[in-house]
Amino acid sequence: MNRRFATLICVSLLMMxxxxxxxxxxxKFTKAQVADQxxxxxxxVDEFQKYLDNQGDExxxxxxxxxxxxxxxxxxxxxxxxxxxRQEQAKQTKNDLEDAxxxxxxxxxxxxxxx
Length: 115
Known about the structure:
- The chain has helices at residues 2-17, 21-26, 31-69, 80-114.
- The chain is mainly α.
């Protein structure tokens, strides 16, 4: 799953950067053009990583604010085992996403070395 997610992110970033497969098949690119496209992908990966970091920071901040204000949840308290299960799932999802981002970084580094 991690490799599929990393590939999906890479393809999405390539599409956003303006490199289209149909263009690549019709015309040849110079090394400078390829390097520029790889740079754009790397910039997109960096921006996405910052976005993820900000989302994590905001979630922690919201949780701390709610806890410190003594706000009670509107819904019924869930059981301890259910809460533990959600926390484990969240940790696993976070780890999977970090692994996919690392793989994407390694892939762009390999691309850069090949040009």
